[in-house]
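User: Here's a structure from my thesis project, written as structure tokens. My advisor, Dr. K., wants to see whether a designed sequence matches the one we expressed. Can you design one independently, without my sequence as a hint?
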């Protein structure tokens, strides 16, 4: 199953999915305090990655849609799967990080 997923997504999109899942998993650990060591990841790095992914995933979804327009058959189905996976991940990421973003806007 993992080999098929990698074959469907390609290595770059697979890594994008892995980073997105990692960022989603870090959302509950994020706080607005500056941390050091391993705690730097959920407090500083993950929110930064979330902001970049919030724009990168829709861009990749758009590009997959552009490539899907000229495709047919199995290739079209592949791009459709890619789009579905990325939309679900994007929505999950936004939902997971909403409490953090609301806390930032209330604090500022």
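Assistant: Designed independently from the structure alone:
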């Amino acid at each position: 199953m993992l080999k098929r997923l990698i074959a469907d997504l390609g290595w770059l999109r697979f890594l994008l999915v892995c980073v997105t899942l990692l960022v989603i998993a870090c959302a509950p650990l994020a706080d607005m305090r500056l941390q050091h060591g391993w705690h730097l990841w959920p407090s500083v790095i993950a929110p930064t990655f979330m902001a970049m992914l919030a724009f990168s995933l829709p861009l990749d979804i758009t590009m997959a849609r552009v490539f899907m327009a000229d495709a047919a058959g199995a290739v079209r189905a592949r791009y459709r799967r890619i789009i579905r996976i990325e939309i679900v991940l994007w929505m999950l990421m936004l939902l997971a990080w909403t409490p953090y973003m609301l806390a930032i806007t209330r604090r500022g």
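When you compare it with your expressed construct, this may help: The CA atoms of residues 57 and 86 lie 7 Å apart.
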